[in-house]
């Protein structure tokens, strides 16, 4: 597999949608990829599709061509392979298009939520430095030139103002470094990987992983794959996520004869209520419908968890910015009050 910069979530969403339309129209993978490659302008996407088309001309599968071309995430490749194996490539591509469209919207929301406060933090840091390096020394010179003696209250205010000056300098540097770190996370592959590792410990990330697991299992079961094989493929699909340990425990329990609904509950993948929904579906012979309903519910749970995470993050940034403004006021107003107290 060739390594290179992966396509963006928006590019993957559009590509999946285009391929799903062509597959639905009965156009083969080789012809579909060739048409898309010819229509695209010169760029990374066109080059990747040309490479995929070259592999398809050899008689290999679409998933093999995508894998050899590089530039496609592992989740995308595994889902396409599942779609080919199950004979539901059209449905898989349509589902992937929706998945990457949501991911693109999520990343856009993250950028909007984080980058704006980060820019504001840099501006406030610049104001901090201007105040502590240019404005506050002026007050000290005024005292020296006037030869004023300070009252205890004024002296205390000036000392507190001096302390806030150094705190402001440290805070300004921290704000700049934090803003640069945020920009690095969004603009580099390593930064995005670091953000993924950071978010992997959150409840929102686990909810997203549960949603992906439920969606994959729903797709594979509805495609006629045996439960054991579907579980094995789901473990491979989510092998690098926070849910991987639970999936391994679930798979081990199933090998010991534990029913699937009970195994997913004991391994902590699903809650008791969710496992009960699965149990009812398996007992009534409607396991595919139950898994599909659970996938829908897990998606709603993931959306709510992500919204909650973004909300908490935004509140934190607002608090930080309020503290920054407070330090600015302390750095300026306290020395001014000290001067006025000395004159009075």
From TrEMBL:
Designated name of the protein? Type II secretion system F family protein
Sequence ranges assigned to domain Type II secretion system protein GspF in this UniProt record: 16-137, 213-335
Q: Which family does it belong to?
A: Belongs to the GSP F family.
What are the UniProt keywords, alphabetically?
Answer: Cell membrane, Membrane, Transmembrane, Transmembrane helix
**Membrane topology for this entry?**
Multi-pass membrane protein
Q: Which residues cross the membrane?
A: 114-136, 166-186, 317-343
Record's superkingdom? Bacteria
Q: Where in the cell is it found?
A: Cell membrane
Q: What is its main location?
A: membrane
- Which Gene3D superfamilies does the UniProt entry name for this protein? Type II secretion system (T2SS), domain F (1.20.81.30)
Supply the PANTHER family for this chain. Answer: GENERAL SECRETION PATHWAY PROTEIN, TYPE II SECRETION SYSTEM PROTEIN F-RELATED
One GO term describing the cellular component: plasma membrane
């Amino acid at each position: 597999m060739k390594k290179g910069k992966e396509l963006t979530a928006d590019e993957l969403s559009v590509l999946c949608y285009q391929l799903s339309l062509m597959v639905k129209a009965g156009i083969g993978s080789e012809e579909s990829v060739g048409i898309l490659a010819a229509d695209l302008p010169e760029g990374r996407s066109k080059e990747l599709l040309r490479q995929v088309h070259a592999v398809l001309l050899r008689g290999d599968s679409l998933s093999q061509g995508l894998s050899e071309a590089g530039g496609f995430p592992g989740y995308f490749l595994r889902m396409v392979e599942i779609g080919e194996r199950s004979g539901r490539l059209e449905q898989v591509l349509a589902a992937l298009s929706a998945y990457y469209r949501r991911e693109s919207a999520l990343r856009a929301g993250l950028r909007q939520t984080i980058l704006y406060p980060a820019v504001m933090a840099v501006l406030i840091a610049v104001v901090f430095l201007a105040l502590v390096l240019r404005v506050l020394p002026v007050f000290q010179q005024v005292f020296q030139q006037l030869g004023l003696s300070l009252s205890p209250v004024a002296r205390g205010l000036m000392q507190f103002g001096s302390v806030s000056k150094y705190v402001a300098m440290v805070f300004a540097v921290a704000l700049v470094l934090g803003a640069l770190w945020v920009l690095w996370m969004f603009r580099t592959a390593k930064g995005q990987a670091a953000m993924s590792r950071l978010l992997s410990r959150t409840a929102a990330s686990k909810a997203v992983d549960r949603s992906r697991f439920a969606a994959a299992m729903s797709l594979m079961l509805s495609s006629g794959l045996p439960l054991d094989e579907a579980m094995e493929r789901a473990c491979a699909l989510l092998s690098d996520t926070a849910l991987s340990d639970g999936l391994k425990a679930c798979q081990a329990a199933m090998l010991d004869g534990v029913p699937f609904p009970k195994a997913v509950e004991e391994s902590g993948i699903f809650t008791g209520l969710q496992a009960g929904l699965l149990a009812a579906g398996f007992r009534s012979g409607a396991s595919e419908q139950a898994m599909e309903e659970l996938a829908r519910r897990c998606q709603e749970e993931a959306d709510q968890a992500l919204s909650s995470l973004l909300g908490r993050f935004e509140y934190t940034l607002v608090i930080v910015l309020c503290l920054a403004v407070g330090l600015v006021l302390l750095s300026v107003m306290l020395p001014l009050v000290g001067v006025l107290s000395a004159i009075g």
